[in-house]
Design brief:
The protein has helices at 2-14, 36-63, 70-99, 106-139, 144-147, 150-168, 170-176, 193-198, 205-237, 243-275, 282-307, 309-320; strands spanning 23-26, 103-105, 185-186. By secondary structure, it is mainly α. Strands 2-1-3 form a three-stranded mixed β-sheet. α2 runs antiparallel to α3.
């Protein structure tokens, strides 16, 4: 019954000739409509863990003034961006999977495009800021607190937010001015820039080029700078006198490296398959796009909570109820 209803929506949408449809229809994962309920279970669990983990990180750092240090403040900013990304996409995704409610208004779809892409860009910027913090802390330990003051941290955070907002704000307008006379069906679980570009019936090379340039100027440049920072970090670490000092210093970077790998790997795969992977099955791309959207925000607080002793100790103290809070 559910599959028949989906097909009916698809056929009705294909018969429309509205150049600017009032609504789009998300169909989820093509070929897996019958399994949407089962797929929604891990997605719902991941979303719950994301909310729990990131709100816990924010609460722990907010209530412990000893954690008001650059790494933890940038981690708070990352947690907020993670929450925005997930909360923008997942509730509608679950509504689609549970109730076959794939209809989304045109304005809401464009808003979702902007929030998801701009917040993802901010996440990348916060990763770079955290890498810069590790670089200063390891290469210039004596001047770390003088370089990264609270004022400087605030300015870096504001610059990252403005970069994501300014560079990604044209995306909804570029999509708004396109005609959609072929169909209003989006073969995806949420609205994203390239998914809408593919169903437009107009020349989109300039828009694609702009999206590609923005992606390189944000995620691409951030990743290159992160790699450069870790090259300098490794150079400094291997000049330390003792093996224990080298291991301890590398250990402070372990959480950040794991988070970067978890975040950038699906992001690059999704980006490349959208633009160059024409032979990749649609359901594979959509699965990876959802992994990119869901897994990093869930994993980030877990990695930092487990591998960062000060956050781990504070978490146990807050939730054990066996010791009074300081």
């Amino acid at each position: 019954m559910k599959r028949k209803l989906t097909l009916a929506l698809v056929m009705s949408a294909y018969n429309k000739t509205d150049v600017h449809p009032s609504t789009f229809i998300l169909i989820g994962i093509p070929g897996f409509e019958a399994a949407h309920i089962w797929i929604s279970i891990p997605f719902c669990v991941i979303y719950f863990l994301t909310l729990l983990g990131n709100f816990s990180i924010l609460f722990i750092i907010k209530t412990d003034h000893r954690l008001y240090e650059p790494m933890y403040l940038f981690l708070c900013m990352l947690a907020v961006a993670d929450l925005i990304v997930c909360t923008t996409a997942v509730p509608k995704l679950l509504s689609l999977f549970w109730f076959n409610d794939g209809e989304i208004r045109f304005a809401a779809c464009l808003t979702q495009v902007f929030l998801i892409h701009s917040s993802s860009t901010m996440e990348s910027g916060f990763f770079l800021a955290m890498a810069f913090d590790r670089y200063v802390a390891i290469c210039y330990p004596l001047t770390h607190s003088m370089i990264l003051t609270h004022t400087v941290i605030g300015k870096i955070g504001l610059a990252i937010v403005l970069r994501g907002t300014v560079l990604l704000s044209p995306h909804p307008f570029l999509l708004r001015w396109l005609p959609y006379c072929k169909t209003n069906i989006i073969s995806h679980t949420y609205c994203e820039f390239m998914a809408l570009i593919k169903i437009a019936c107009a020349e989109t090379r300039i828009r694609r080029a702009y999206s590609l340039i923005v992606a390189f100027l944000t995620g691409g440049v951030d990743f290159i700078l992160i790699i450069c920072s870790y090259i300098f970090i490794l150079h400094s670490v291997f000049h330390l006198p003792s093996k224990d000092a080298r291991l301890k210093t590398l250990g402070t970077c372990g959480s950040h490296v794991l988070v970067i790998l978890v975040s950038y790997t699906p992001a690059f795969f999704s980006f490349l398959t959208h633009r160059f992977g024409h032979h990749v099955a649609p359901h594979v791309h959509i699965f990876v796009a959802n992994i990119y959207l869901l897994i990093p925000p869930m994993v980030n607080p877990i990695i930092y909570g487990v591998r960062t002793k000060r956050i781990r100790d504070r978490f146990l103290k807050v939730f054990s109820f066996s010791k009074p809070l300081n």
